[in-house]
Amino acid sequence: MFTINTIAKRLGIPAVTLRAWEFRYGVVAPARTGGGHRIYTEEDFQTLLWLKEQVVDRGIPISQAAKLLKQRQEEVSKTNKPLTSNVSYEEMAANLYDALLAYDNVRAHAYIDLSFSLFHFEDVFHHILVPILKRVGEEWHDGKVLIAQEHFVSSFAKQRILEFVRLFPVDRTMPKCIAFCPPTETHHIGLLLFTMFMQKKGHEVIYLGPSTTYTHLFEIITETQAELIFMSLTDPRYLKPAQHWLDEALEHFPHLKIVLGGLAFDQVDEPLKSKVLKGNIEDWERWYTNVMRNKKNPSLKDQEKG
Amino acid sequence: MFTINTIAKRLGIPAVTLRAWEFRYGVVAPARTGGGHRIYTEEDFQTLLWLKEQVVDRGIPISQAAKLLKQRQEEVSKTNKPLTSNVSYEEMAANLYDALLAYDNVRAHAYIDLSFSLFHFEDVFHHILVPILKRVGEEWHDGKVLIAQEHFVSSFAKQRILEFVRLFPVDRTMPKCIAFCPPTETHHIGLLLFTMFMQKKGHEVIYLGPSTTYTHLFEIITETQAELIFMSLTDPRYLKPAQHWLDEALEHFPHLKIVLGGLAFDQVDEPLKSKVLKGNIEDWERWYTNVMRNKKNPSLKDQEKG
DNA sequence: AATTATTGTATAGTTATTGTACAACCTACC
DNA sequence: GGTAGGTTGTACAATAACTATACAATAATT
């Protein structure tokens, strides 16, 4: 909600410097107005305030402070004993896993509710639910878990994620997204999590879900004026039609941003490779920073590391 | 009650600016005299005062402050339920239908939320959501609605139903249910509604969802000690395997209650016919009364008309 | 001591946002 | 009917931000 100068004054750091920090070290990623002006949130301000303390009071060079910040952010999300409790993600995941494999709805929901009260909601999804889904997937593959159990677990997960997604207020002036899995694809947890991620940022996401046919997608893009498409695909056998559709899509809508997720894109070559996004949220944050930074140049090719 | 200059003086903001705010950001909408002069109410003044605070004291640009205001107002209007309204199911369904076909998540959820505040929740599902789903299904069949729209609508419905289902407290001493659609079957709204119905009665329902394979179902029944199975099937081509599995199931678990739903069972003969339940909730209530009355004699054959 | 890297700041050339001025006309009200 | 005050629309100036590049000042390294 704040302009760069308001923030600069509140911090006592010139705006030029803030821009340099952002550009050089990717230290915050304020939203932009239609015209490209930075809009800082209170959270952004707190981040910058912390950085200023490190730099001004503790004499740490900004490059190091930025690294520390990244570490801190990743640690908060990766640590097994989150700040507020002495229960670890693993413990909670183990309990939930047991409840789910026993088809115990009541206990499963109770554990998830408890998790939400103990941990940050995104950590619940990424550090409790996702590991369980991965584990169940693997164990089904090894024959240790029944397909019905896998069914039950992913249905449960989907439910809890979608329930959450719709609670985020969206800013309808921000670019819209469409999320879908192509035909035959039924694994869409990643799609859901990415939907939540974008919705949390304030983007409206049109969730078309698993097994969406390519037909009519263009109409939908036109109709909804979506600017970002997220496609999830796990089976590499359907890479060809996906690629074909993507080529066409970019021809029709040159400014469309495309994001690809799922195992199928793991071993893919350029030009698709630059559009692939890995499953972890830290990468998503980095990607988002980059996309928003280059808002007027929607190509994702000029992504940088760091 | 106030003219623009009165307000301008009270705020310390020139009238020109107020008009610009109104014109550019739609920030207030004062009533007009017959001749077009603006008439501000005290409420308008308070709104403008709040805006002035954001802009002058907090350093938020007017464009952003206006957005914040809109969001605040939306939240307020969501919580202020217009209880006195005499909206019909049809009207509400028509509005919701429009929002859904336009992929308008925000509006769709707003209508459903409004519906919950106006009507009994079960009526919302059975008299608003179900008619929409039927209509969309038919119109898709007639080529009037895209498959992606159908997708979007049923995903939306599923989400809202499941969200509700889990809120009912279940009595774990009551007989458990398993709900599933056999392989190839993806239409499971009826299954969901029946799940909600049973859960509301206090039964725990293990929702296995669409396209559940028959393999291992016996194990699950044994493990969960479920006493009731609900199967939904729309495609009559898969009636044979369904019947075959049911025969086996009754052999293994003679006390199992079986309920069949979906179009596929419409024209079926005995002994399946007596297990078929139509889609309307009145029939469900009647059926439930009967089953519970005859609890010690789990056969459903001796159903009476009530 | 010289070289290189890091970091803050300055500047140029644009573009966006926002407040204000003005013309031409209209309304309220004594 | 006159005057003070209101209307819409367009125009414009004043800020304020943007990107990109350049350039000292300082710190680290060879």
Describe it.
The structure is a homodimer of 306-residue chains. By secondary structure, the first copy, chain A, is of the alpha/beta class. Chain A is built from twelve helices and six strands. Chain A folds into three domains: 75 residues, Orthogonal Bundle (Multidrug-efflux Transporter Regulator, Chain: A, Domain 2), CATH 1.10.1660; 77 residues, Methyltransferase, Methionine Synthase (B12-binding Domains), Chain A, domain 1 (Orthogonal Bundle); 118 residues, 3-Layer(aba) Sandwich (Rossmann fold). In chain A, helix 9 links the parallel strand 3 and strand 4. In chain A, helix 5 runs antiparallel to helix 6, helix 5 packs across helix 7 and helix 7 packs antiparallel against helix 8. The first copy, chain A, starts with a helix and ends in a 13-residue tail after the last helix. At the A-B interface, helix 1, helix 6, helix 8, strand 4 and helix 10 of A face helix 4, helix 6, helix 8, strand 4 and helix 10 of B. Chain A binds a DNA duplex (30 and 30 nucleotides) through helix 2.
How are the elements arranged and paired?
2 copies of one chain form a homodimer.
Chain A: H1 4-11, H2 15-25, E1 31-32, E2 38-39, H3 42-57, H4 62-78, H5 89-101, H6 105-118, H7 121-141, H8 147-165, E3 176-180, H9 189-200, E4 205-209, H10 217-224, E5 226-232, H11 239-252, E6 257-261, H12 281-293
Parallel strand pairs in A: 3-4, 3-5, 5-6
Antiparallel strand pairs in A: 1-2
The structure holds a DNA duplex (30 and 30 nucleotides).
